[in-house]
Design a protein that fits this description.
GO molecular function: hydrolase activity
Number of domains: 1
Bound molecules: 2-acetamido-2-deoxy-beta-D-glucopyranose
Shape: globular
Keywords: Hydrolase, Signal
Number of strands: 8
Helix content: 25-40%
CATH architecture: 3-Layer(aba) Sandwich
Pfam families: Abhydrolase_6
InterPro entries: AB_hydrolase (IPR050471), AB_hydrolase_1 (IPR000073), AB_hydrolase_fold (IPR029058)
Protein name: Alpha/Beta hydrolase protein
CATH topology: Rossmann fold
Radius of gyration: 18 Å
Length: about 300
């Protein structure tokens, strides 16, 4: 397991990939995700949370508008800018308040190297920020590592979670698809972009050492997440409490490259009452590969619950 992960880490950090030898790409893998910045924000800055400066931005109507606030959690070694299309859509077109969070050690958030990076820590950080902002209930959209954090929030902080859109999660460290990863045509560009974006965003006073961040992220991913049925069993299900239990959509792309393809179905099976949502003709980078389609699903997910099983 960890040797496979080391291959992944080497591929993503040393950029020594020889892309000529890769297998034929699937349609979705030929997209190069275009860069997207965050839409205009009402607030961009940090809050002192759990001994770090947690960067966040707020978009759309005020938190007090009566509509459910939606938190966006990004994937590994990226930042909330990667959610630019979806944040604009949810905040402006649908009109729900949006809170975008840069995970600790990522984007504009600082790190505390005296504690390891864990999905549980990320979930505590997001929940502490909600408390700081006096938000009692929220929806969470997470992709990749952010999806794992959303699952951890559902397990440990379910009281704040009205719903979760969990895209491209895994539940054990050995569920990476190395063949699929190596076949991504824009892998080299991706690795370069992750590093240059991180270097541009990381706050002053933090060491600009991307290799150190990569090592801390790898240390986390070699051992986590390590979830089984008992962990998923902590998530209150819609059968137990149709009005308060989180609506969970376990989503993925039909051409998912990085996470093994059975995983989303497994997670769905582990969470009673959750829904499995497969987005067509996209992979792990769906929010950038086909933002309009991703937004259609988000728009449906965000609709107010009408009682009964979720809707
Ligand atoms: C807070 O973070 C700093 C920087 O990593 C660390 O040196 C310090 O020990 C931390 N303090 C606590 C109380 O965890
Ligand atoms: C891994 O990716 C390859 C290449 O896309 C694919 O053929 C294979 O089915 C995937 N394996 C799993 C377990 O997802």
């Amino acid at each position: 397991m960890s040797s496979l992960l080391r291959v992944l880490v080497t591929a993503l950090t040393s950029m020594s990939l020889i892309t000529d030898s890769i297998a034929a790409a699937e349609p979705a893998e030929t997209y190069t995700p275009p860069y997207k910045t965050l839409p205009p924000a009402k607030f961009r800055g940090t809050a002192r949370i759990n001994n770090i400066s947690l960067w966040y931005s707020m978009h759309g109507p005020p938190l007090t508008c009566g509509r459910l606030p939606i938190v966006f959690l990004h994937g590994r070694k990226t930042s909330s800018r990667w959610w630019g299309y979806q944040i604009k859509y949810v905040a402006s077109t649908i009109g729900n308040p949006v809170i975008a969070i840069d995970t600790r050690a990522h984007g504009g958030s600082s790190d505390d190297i005296s504690v390891p990076l864990t999905y549980e820590q990320f979930a505590h950080d997001a929940t502490a920020l909600l408390k700081h902002l006096k938000v009692a209930r929220t929806g969470v959209v997470g992709r990749s590592d952010g999806a794992n954090t959303a699952l951890s929030m559902a397990m440990h902080h379910g009281e704040v979670l009205d719903r979760a859109f969990v895209f491209g999660a895994n539940y054990r460290p050995d569920q990476l698809n190395i063949t699929g990863l190596m076949g991504i045509m824009f892998l080299k560009e991706l690795a370069g972009r992750q590093q240059s974006e991180w270097e541009a965003l990381t706050p002053t006073g933090q060491p600009k050492n991307y290799a150190a961040l990569a090592a801390r992220v790898s240390a986390m991913q070699e051992t986590a997440p390590m979830w089984d049925g008992s962990d998923f069993g902590r998530i209150k299900t819609l059968y137990q409490d149709p009005r308060k239990a989180p609506i969970v959509w376990v989503a993925d792309g039909d051409s998912e490259e990085i996470v093994q393809r059975q995983v989303a179905g497994d997670i769905r099976d582990g969470i009673w009452g959750s829904s499995l949502v497969m987005l067509p003709d996209v992979g792990h980078f769906a929010p950038l590969q086909d933002p309009e389609m991703f937004n259609v699903f988000l728009g449906r997910w965000v609709e107010p619950r009408a009682g009964g099983k979720g809707r």
